[in-house]
Specification:
By secondary structure, the chain is an alpha/beta fold. It has 17 helices and 19 strands. Strands 3-1-4-5-6-7-8 form a 7-stranded mixed β-sheet, sandwiched between helices. It binds cobalamin and iron/sulfur cluster.
């Protein structure tokens, strides 16, 4: 069968597509786990943000897929609906399958007939999708395949729950990067790729979707498999690799062993990015941080979440972000940041501001921490994604004020606190963050001077969207710039020039004309 896998073009404020365009890890894994006789094409649409419709039309025309699979996050839901409608108009009989976080955690949103989805794959998809495609090919019933919702005779059939895979038994085969048909992956000018070393997490932070998605568990790929996977990415040109594990720092000994294995394999000239918790990095940083540096790690995305105890407690992130000391538990953010930076690692600081009881001072304290201690701010607002405990808390307290899911991108405040309006929370973050980002430019220049020379102006223009000469010379207020920036961002969200089949219904009320940024693009053979 011919299978086309798509990830959505919608990108995130803190990883602008000018500088960061990474492959979607799910699609490579799905492709690698299909039976080998199928023809598979992967198109990460973030690579063609300025020509999504044209690219999809070309792909459908050239490839004539039997099955199209889309990977969707919640804020990408409306884009996915438009794409499905476009694809159906081009090839009405194609089978449309959706998977990933939003279809898994909000399947009800995907079953309306107008949306045009045939099958929803819930949770981990590698084995489920393989079995699904086999069943399509052999015209077998889908009811025996665990982990699906599908349409049959006008009704929705839900099949048995499917547990997560044990990764140490070769149940999950390596990703198939050869299936990618678009070019242009980058991390600030270096060819970028993603690699998984483990899946899952045993914590239960209230804002995170992982527990509802997979349950509380942690499974590790064998280190030899990870090294082969990194070598494969490297052989295909990757010079910057994001380890997309949910929480690699759950097992620090294994992480250290991985660093050693990377060094032994001579793969330590690659730049690595990883995300981790503050507590183990603070506790073990004295040995771990220098080892990470030797292995090539450059950026550490730290889930600091919040520097105030009350907020950490609300986010249920206290256990992973504090450590026991004489006199009680203390927040481990500062210790982790300090040790990482002392060893030459750059810290991407993940913070969440605008929690239910936040006052101006609480937001300011977190912004001030970021200003002083992180290299790149990754500050978000609490966002009520489907199925998270935090969503229930915000709903119960009547604090969700924005139901336009395309704005659930993490940097749009869609909830208010009991003391602050969402606009005020977002304004405070936006105003502080832009200057923190500017401060990071020299570090990027030292590492990738050509990239900065070529793109520095566009990166600054992106960071300061909405600024005009009038605002620079003080003839306009910062709030005017902020309003203009929000208008620009609203227009940027229109990635697909095709109507939403649920237009007018809740969650799709953006009606601005499409204006598009840039993007290199190429449609090649599969
Ligand atoms: C790595 C990661 C990133 C990387 C992405 C790198 C990349 N290009 O892949 C970065 C840091 C850039 C990122 C950014 C964002 N992320 Co993120 N990210 C993750 C993380 C940690 C792992 C995702 C991953 O790659 N896993 C490995 C792959 C193999 O697993 P998977 O994606 O789950 O795919 C499996 C199944 O879902 C399923 N599946 C997936 N797609 C499909 C499609 C089909 C057809 C089928 C059949 C099956 C299927 O099968 C796959 C294989 O088993 C998750 C989870 C977590 N613990 O926080 C969050 C997560 C996915 N991110 C999330 C969000 C919200 C974002 C941001 C909006 C803001 C943010 N929090 O940073 C931005 C937006 C990104 C963008 N598009 O611009 C949310 C999504 C919530 C939701 N309901 O939509 C998550 C769940 C975190 C959370 N808050 O709970 N993210
Ligand atoms: S530690 Fe990270 S992956 Fe685990 S529940 Fe918390 S935010 Fe999610």
């Amino acid at each position: 069968m011919r299978i086309l896998l798509l990830s959505m073009p919608d990108s995130f404020e803190h990883t602008p597509a000018i500088a960061v365009r990474m492959p979607n890890g799910a699609l490579g894994s799905l492709a690698g786990n299909l039976d080998p006789h199928h023809q598979v094409a992967i198109a990460d649409l973030v690579l063609v943000q300025s020509s999504v419709r044209r690219t999809v039309e070309q792909l459908i025309d050239q490839f004539r897929p039997d099955v199209v699979g889309l990977s969707v996050m919640t804020f990408q839901r409306a884009t996915a609906r438009r794409l499905i409608a476009l694809i159906r108009s081009l090839q009405p009989d194609v089978r449309v399958v959706v998977g990933g976080y939003d279809p898994s955690l909000a399947p009800d949103a995907w079953i309306q007939p107008d949306v045009g989805v045939d099958v929803i794959v819930r949770g981990e998809g590698d084995v489920t999708f393989r079995e699904l495609v086999r069943a399509f090919e052999q015209r077998q019933p889908l009811s025996a395949i665990g982990g699906l919702w599908f349409r049959q005779d006008g009704a929705i059939v839900k099949t048995a729950h499917r547990g997560v895979a044990r990764l140490d038994r070769e149940e999950i085969r390596p990703p198939n990067r050869a299936a990618r048909v678009l070019a242009g992956y980058t991390m600030m000018g270096r060819r970028a790729d993603v690699v998984e070393t483990s899946r899952g997490c045993t914590f239960d932070c209230s804002f995170c979707s992982i527990i509802e998605m997979r349950g509380r568990n942690f499974h590790r790929f064998p280190i030899a498999r990870v090294i082969d996977d990194i070598a494969d990415a490297h052989a295909r040109g990757a010079r910057s690799i994001f380890l997309v594990d949910d929480n690699i720092t759950l097992d620090v000994e294994r992480f250290e062993a991985l660093c050693e294995a990377i060094i032994t394999a001579g793969l330590n000239r690659i730049d690595y990015l990883v995300q981790g918790m503050t507590a183990p990095l603070a506790a073990r940083g004295a040995t771990l941080a220098p080892l990470m540096r030797r292995a090539g790690f450059r950026y550490v995305f730290l889930g600091i979440e919040n520097v105030l105890d009350a907020d950490l407690a609300f986010l249920k992130a206290r256990a992973k972000n504090s450590r026991q000391q004489a006199g009680g538990r203390v927040n481990s953010a500062l210790a982790a940041v300090t040790i990482l930076r002392a060893h030459g690692l750059l810290v991407v600081g993940g913070l969440i501001v605008g929690n239910p009881d936040d006052r101006r001072e609480s937001v300011t304290a977190n912004l001030e921490f970021a200003r002083q201690h992180v290299d790149w701010p990754y500050i978000q607002h609490p966002t009520p994604y489907p199925g998270t405990p935090m969503t229930r808390d915000f709903e119960d307290r009547g604090l969700v004020v924005n139901r336009r899911l395309e704005e659930y991108d993490g940097t749009t405040a869609v909830t208010r606190s009991t003391h602050l309006d969402p606009e005020e929370i977002e304004f405070m973050r936006w105003q502080a963050e832009r200057w923190m980002k500017v401060r990071h430019l020299p570090a990027v220049f030292r590492h990738d001077p050509m990239f900065v020379l070529r793109n520095g102006r566009r990166m600054l223009a992106h960071t300061f969207r909405g600024t005009t000469w009038r605002s620079v010379v003080g003839l306009e207020e910062a709030r005017d710039v902020f309003r203009r920036y929000r208008g620009i961002r609203r227009r940027e969200r229109e990635y697909v020039d095709w109507p939403d089949p649920l237009e007018g219904a809740a969650g799709s009320d953006e009606a601005e004309p499409a204006t598009q940024p840039h993007r290199p693009e190429r449609v090649g053979a599969s």
